[in-house]
Amino acid sequence: MSAPHTLYDKIWDDHVVHRSDDGTCLLYIDRHLVHEVTSPQAFEGLRMTGRKVRAPEKTIAVPDHNVPTTAGRETHIDNEESRIQVEALDKNAKDFGINYYPVSDIRQGIVHIVGPEQGWTLPGMTVVCGDSHTATHGAFGALAHGIGTSEVEHVLATQTLIQKKSKNMKVEITGSLRPGVTAKDITLSVIGETGTAGGTGYVIEYCGQAIRELSMEGRMTVCNMAIEGGARAGLIAPDEKTFAYVMGRPHAPKGAKWEAALAYWKTLFTDEGAHFDKVVTIRGEDIAPVVTWGTSPEDVLPITAVVPSPEDFTGGKVEAARRSLDYMGLTPGMKLTDIKIDTVFIGSCTNGRIEDLRAAAAILKGKKIAPGMRAMVVPGSGLVRAQAEEEGLAQIFIDAGFEWRLAGCSMCLAMNPDQLSPGERCAATSNRNFEGRQGRGGRTHLVSPGMAAAAAITGHLTDVREMMAESV
Amino acid sequence: MDKFTTLTGIAAPMPLVNIDTDMIIPKQFLKTIQRSGLGKNLFDEMRYTQDGQEIPDFVLNQPAYRKAEIIVAGDNFGCGSSREHAPWALLDFGIRCVISTSFADIFFNNCFKNGILPVVLPQEAVDHLMDDARKGENARLTVDLENQTVTASDGTAFRFEVDPFKKHCLLNGLDDIGLTLEKAASIDAFEAKNATLRPWA
After folding, report:
1. Taking 60 as the threshold, does the pLDDT of residue B162 lie above it?
2. Environment class of A356 (CB within 10 Å of its CB; exposed 0-12, middle 13-18, buried 19+)
3. Which of B 86-145 lie inside 8 A of A, CB atoms?
4. Would the pTM count as exceeding 0.90?
């Protein structure tokens, strides 16, 4: 009998094309997702060298980062540079014969939402994209990670990547979550515990009862932010929930291929006794609804806490915390729930799926956003948007005073016109609170969809559990 | 890709931890469809005011560091997005080497694809080199990839580790894609086997 393997070991071993003596491997890539911002130079590289896309049928492109989320974008994008990038993707998709969802297609959306939705992402696959949040697809038990543009070109030309294996890290969330606590709170709490470099050099496998109890959408939220913890990828072993989610999707296998796939997918788990190089265990019961106070995703605290002081930290973090507090305009000791909010953004590849919109709408139903509040919902895909309209969620958002937008990355990274002004403070369901991330001088607090909705109503950061008690 | 062999140059000290890719090159500059020309926007929001004036305190605006070729940085340099625009901007400015205790994974890989050497050293070594960098243009560091050393202006040499394959590619300025295409037969064989074992993929 062979030594016990982790899930990561198994997926890795099944994709090694060539192994050099020094351990450098050529790894086969099953799915290559492409968007407009990190691909133009890669396609240009192919043209200059006369190379083709090796496996166009495994390559899927969709514009998402740059696209406006307002009406009329199918015919015109005002920003010239954005328009050129989107047009370049249109042309590259056509010239190289790859799968493509243009802005005019209802299936268009954020690449990490479209992939799973269309059944491109399947358990046991290797999935890459020129985008760090590719980690999202790990929720299916796929080895998924971001790559740079040079590597995008490498995958386009060869359908492989040159890789060295990472180490194995286990993050176990035991027990069950308490009411009002979500997948977003899990993933932020893990980063708060390990730091943004805690996962560097590792692939994380998330496991434990609280992870098992999450829906597929919640699992995607958890894996999405593995990169914010520094990990190359995050993984969750596939189970019946995974198979049920995948079954019947447009690009999922059917018939005999489905049966064969299912038999293989059921072997994708970490063997008893397999070795992990690092283990982190958190009790699900101990996780509270959390919020970030600073400019790094590791700056996480329960909503019931107060703004920390730089002296609470050690080493280089003292100066970093001082800079963060200054940038965020916060005073140590003030209650997080006293922080006033100007803008609420619900969307992104972290929290732009239908369950996220349902969670926010449940809090907003029959309520209005605070006077002067700017609030927007940007669904993760055209299909999520259509479903939310069918379920009556869109009307709840609109009645509450939210803007109801078209699909895209939008204010998560503010490459399109959706941006914060200097000093504007936003409760966002996205994934990064870096300086300037949502617009120069903008101040971001990362939260779950329910917490974002609660802040929109009260005008300040709010413990969503209080709003839930109200609605009972 | 340009070769990297040895480099003697001015090092700019940037002790801040977690310098992220949004700081290195903010998103508004990702709209280009070219690799070149990003140097003027390197660290844009730290380097210029909203109306485009230089912020004199920022290290790369100081006379001693305007021609820096090396950055000595705090922990976890390059965290955040996968944007290769970050190393493109560093390279376009003239930075060929970044020294830190740790780097984010994707940024680290992206550097090697662009002729930039990221050097990982222990805290004490980085502290020593940071102090040296603070001395300005009189203190030049020497980075020797072949011998895997960084030498401070006082002659203290620190040895660093580097992946042998990445070192080989950087020393010779090799194109990864060309190397991989030499293994086309292995890729063909893998795909043929895969078609039987995992026909749904």
Report:
1. yes
2. buried
3. 87, 102-106, 109-110, 113-114
4. yes
